[in-house]
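Weekly modeling sync, notes
Attendees: AB, CL, MP (scribe)

Item 1: holo prediction request
CL wants a bound-state model with 6-O-phosphono-beta-D-fructofuranose before deciding which constructs to order. AB pointed out that an apo prediction alone won't tell us much about the pocket. Agreed to run with the ligand included and paste results into these notes for async review.

Input as submitted:
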Amino acid sequence: MNDQLLKIHQKLLAKAEMLKKTSINDLFGRDPERAERFFLSIDNSLAYDFSRERIDQEAIDLLLELYHYQECPNKLDDLFSGKHVNYSENRPSLHTLLRDVFDKNISDSLSEKRNLVANELKKIKAFTEAFRGGKILGINGKPLKEILVIGIGGSYLGNKLLYESLEDSLNNFKLSFLTEPNDKEFESVTSDLDLEETLVIVISKSFTTKETLLIGNRIREKLQNAFGEDAVKHHFVGISSNTAGLDAFGIAKDRQFYFWDWVGGRYSIWSSVGLPISLVLGYEAIEGFLEGGSALDNNIQSTGPISALPVIHALIGFWNHHYLDMNSHLVLTYPKEIKSIVEYNQQLVMESNGKALPESSPYKSSVQIIWGGPGVESQHSFYQALHQSNLRSSIEFVSSVAESDFSFFNFSNLAAQLQTLTDGNELTEDRKIIGDKAHTLILLSQISPFNLGAYLALQEHSTYIKSLLLGINAFDQFGVETGKVIADNFLKDKKVNVSEKFRHLEFFKKNN
Ligand code: F6P
């Protein structure tokens, strides 16, 4: 570590030692404006309250020094302008471009790519209108109404989150998912579908993911057995960056949607991967979602770091992890329909930043464990440990209120938890809750496509900034790929060939 970096790091360590001994209520006492100042919002849609984090302005200023020392502003520009920020694979990571197609007059080095994106959006819009207008017909001439999505990881989690969050009971269209090969799930999901009216959407960036292809092949077989060879043409859509893979599977050309190798799988919900949401909720949902993401891009590009939400979010996350020693990050959602934010963040953060640190790094680990769940249910599960144990986790509440009794119930519970975590109580020793547990609150004005877009883009930029502060590449995933290759070898040989060390793998098989 060079001298300047060492100096900043040491100042941060010293500051952390002081703040570890300072309660959140003391921080409020010292700075009566704190609630106002440690709060940021954008477009009346997303608000970020970090006033109950264990941090003060001096610590934020030191973190900003680190941010500038690591040249984060330039590296953010590199992301937006298509430089090869995914340096191990020598390509850009241009998910931001997917939501930057509204101003058609921009002419820059990204114009060609922007046109590709705009073209896919046009295709999505046209297909959505035809589908929702009952004009996409199955092999027997019936309009397709049910949708089965097959995909995993980034080819699944975004659609799942958006569908669960935004679906409403008045919807005419049903969406179900298959992710990992599982006999029980396959039977239960497919037996609920009327295959004659089902559109199967296979999503895979690589179109080589075995999980996805195995399920895709099985459902293709089922459809062909029921309706003949031609069923594939009528009942399948494919979304991929691998055109040859789509062709080989038999997906008709006019049912193919594309994205590109410069869009990472876990950043791909902004691409044609979002087609299922457009079909079920209407094209406006996708447009709103992209606009929400774009609003966050504008926020980080046009606001100074001190008031850019993703910058402050990243710096506080970094502070909690590396200086206050919080090795996990808990995400709690009120209301329940946005609960899959936890899984989404798990992939986004842990697949992006779960990397080996540079040898010279002063930090112990590159990524916090992301965990969590729906707030009220979690209150009856692991909250006890939050309140009375010495568990070390940073906490992020994500919430929104609607006007209903149930919603008010959830909101009251959220408020009660925030108060207990901050103030504790003064009861007898075994009932006593110390409180003083730092946390963040992110409020969405409502659960809408725009706001979810803004929230996910906030998490993406925050993750990227943390990777820059650590000196790691947020955009490759060689760890996951190694597992895929080894499993492929076993599949090829139809045999799990392992060394003596793993002899118990087949324990029950041998005993039978
Ligand atoms: O989990 C690794 C990964 O490569 C993810 O990044 C990706 O979202 C997922 O597998 C699925 O890959 P694909 O979209 O190529 O099927």
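Recorded for review: The radius of gyration is 24 Å.
Action items: CL to compare against the apo run; MP to circulate these notes.
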